[in-house]
Write a structure and sequence with these properties.
The protein has about 525 residues and is an alpha/beta fold. It has three domains: about 1-145, Cobalamin-binding domain (Rossmann fold), CATH 3.40.50; about 180-415, Aldolase class I (TIM Barrel, Alpha-Beta Barrel); about 430-533, no CATH class. The protein is about 45% helix and about 15% strand. The protein contains 22 helices and 18 strands. The chain has helices spanning about 25-35, 50-55, 70-80, 90-95, 100, 115-125, 155-160, 195-200, 210-220, 235-245, 275-280, 295-300, 310-320, 340-350, 370-375, 400-415, 420-435, 440-445, 445-460, 465-475, 480-505, 510-520; strands at about 1-5, 40-45, 60-65, 85-90, 105-110, 135-140, 145, 170, 180, 185, 205, 225, 255-260, 265, 270, 285-295, 325-330, 355-360. Strands 7-6-5-4-3-1-2-8 form an eight-stranded mixed β-sheet, sandwiched between helices. A six-stranded parallel β-sheet has the order 9-12-13-16-17-18. The chain is globular.
């Protein structure tokens, strides 16, 4: 069969615009179907546009969505349905709202979709297995919507046997600067705003360390993002993996998501796990993506984070001590939050020198305990799923109005990613680069010119021209000197990108419209856009 798979892009300005990586579900499914002899191509819209001429000649199209991308997925499905092409949708959103999805498509894969997809393809090809025998499948039969029993989550053995995803099947896959590698599925914690537990269960499935090493040796990546929900749920396993990476001489920069208490060997005594931190540093960990969520103790309790502010502060110091940058992930808008706590969060991030942050607004995603609770209480503000992207206030809370929350979240981002903060980091980066490169900088005119050119290129508004200059400079500097320059100027670049995203959101028409919607809830007078709180 000719099968095409699609991951739609979110609408509007998004914090993840810089991250040119598809989620791994479709690349894995595409590789399984390719290995079974099918003609497969995957489109991830953040990498490359969809080729509609190609889609309209397909035998089956699969669309995987999150909540914020579901509306775009539905529009695509409608167009395909009009052309008579069957569509199956999967992903977290439609898993929990299959009836909604069946208004647009004939098939929905709930939960883990790789086996469900294989069995549906087999049914469409030869009639076996029967539709009512495919676990995890919802489908339409006339006017009826039928939901087969749920498919049990796969175990570690089955998870470990999933193929290495072939990104060559992904349109634009050659543009991916970072390779995604998944070593585990699931999360043992119970944050009530997260759908991971509901989707994949609390039992963590892990690949054998040998299998992960095989993928890394086969693909030889320069940059890796371990896209596990929590890379270090089992310290012994994580350390075994890092030791094997070290022993095999694998050289790449990597980052991963983890919790604050990762840094502790003994959480009660706050003794640091020096061995783990050393392994992370020595194997190339460039950044830890840490779900801090809040610096309000009451909010942390409400989120069931099982950590306190002292843990957060200690983890930042520990990572920095080992040369690992920190991306702090915060969720604003809990019932316990106020204007003051949001402002304190931004100040905390700056005072503790977190390298990059995201201040996301609490989203009531279908399937989560949070969604069920605030929906029953009538506190959800809007039913446009495309706005459920973490950038829009969606829940009415007791101590801060939705309009105030939206403005304060924007101000927090603007404060952290200000031009002044960028300038300070740039000066610091240049100073360190000059220190590390002083000999080649002063003795070699070409190196001196290259360094000054790199600084100027960072400020150029034209992306294509900037990238061309940087590529030429990289060749002139050589690998070793370029790495020194990159290490020192990478962080200012990320802060510069963050500032540009804040400005883009400020000028975005949809952001202005939503802000006016929130003002309308309070009967406040209209203001002109762009947003100038």
């Amino acid at each position: 069969m000719k099968i095409r798979l699609i991951e739609p892009k979110p609408s509007g300005v998004n914090v993840y615009d810089l991250v040119k990586m598809p989620r791994l579900g479709l690349p894995i499914i595409g590789t399984i179907l390719r290995d079974a002899g099918h003609d497969v191509r995957t489109y991830c819209e953040i990498l490359a546009p969809v080729d509609w001429d190609d889609l309209l000649g397909s035998d089956l199209v699969g669309i995987s969505t999150t909540t914020s991308t579901a509306p775009r997925g539905y529009r695509m499905a409608k167009r395909l349905a009009e052309a008579g092409i069957p569509v199956i949708m999967g992903g977290s959103h439609v898993t929990f709202l299959p009836d909604e999805a069946l208004e647009y498509v004939p098939y929905v894969a709930r939960g883990e979709g790789h086996r469900t997809m294989q069995e549906l393809v087999a049914h469409l090809e030869g009639g076996e297995p029967a539709l009512d025998g495919i676990l995890g499948l919802s489908y339409r039969e006339g006017d009826r919507m039928i939901h087969n029993p749920a498919r049990p989550p796969c175990g570690s053995e089955e998870f470990g046997e999933l193929p290495i995803p072939d990104f060559g099947l992904v349109a634009g896959g050659d543009k991916m600067p970072v390779r995604s590698v998944m070593t585990q599925w699931g999360c043992p914690y119970s944050c009530d705003f997260c759908s991971v537990i509901q989707m994949f269960g609390r039992k963590v499935k892990s690949k054998a360390v040998d299998r992960v090493i095989e993928e890394l040796e086969t693909t030889q990546p320069k940059f890796v993002f371990f896209c596990d929900d929590n890379f270090i749920t089992d310290k012994k396993r994580a350390m075994d993996l890092l030791r094997r990476i070290q022993a095999r001489g694998l050289r790449f920069s990597w980052s991963a998501q983890m919790r604050a208490e990762t840094v502790f060997r003994n959480r009660k005594t706050k003794e640091l796990d020096e061995e783990l931190l050393g392994l992370m540093r020595d194997t190339g960990c460039a950044m830890a993506y840490v779900g801090f969520e809040s610096v309000n103790p009451e909010t942390l309790k409400a989120y069931h984070k099982e950590q306190d502010v002292a843990d957060i502060e200690a983890s930042i110091r520990a990572f920095h001590r080992y040369g690992i940058k920190v991306h702090g992930m915060f969720v604003l808008g809990a019932d316990q939050d106020t204007v003051q706590t949001v402002r304190e969060t931004a100040n905390f991030a700056l005072d503790n020198q977190i390298d990059t942050v995201q201040f996301m607004l609490l989203q009531p995603l279908p399937g989560t305990p949070l969604y069920e609770r605030v929906k029953a209480e009538g506190r959800i503000l809007h039913d446009d799923w495309s706005l459920y992207d973490g950038h829009h206030a969606m829940v009415r809370v007791p101590n801060i109005s939705p309009y105030q929350l939206q403005i304060e979240a924007y101000r927090a981002m603007k404060k952290f990613y200000s031009n002044w903060q960028f300038f300070k980091l740039l000066v610091g980066g240049v100073t360190l680069a000059a220190r590390d490169l002083w000999r080649p900088f002063w003795r070699e005119p070409s190196t001196r010119a290259a360094l000054l050119g790199a600084l100027g290129a960072m400020l150029l508004p034209l992306r294509r021209r900037r990238e061309g200059i940087l590529l030429a400079l990289r060749e002139r500097l050589g690998r070793k000197n370029w790495r020194v320059l990159e290490d020192n100027l990478w962080l200012p670049y990320l802060r510069s990108y963050g500032h540009k995203q804040v400005v883009k959101w400020q000028e975005e028409l949809e952001a202005c419209r939503y802000l006016e919607f929130l003002r309308g809830l309070e009967a406040l007078p209209t203001i002109n856009c762009p947003i100038k709180p």
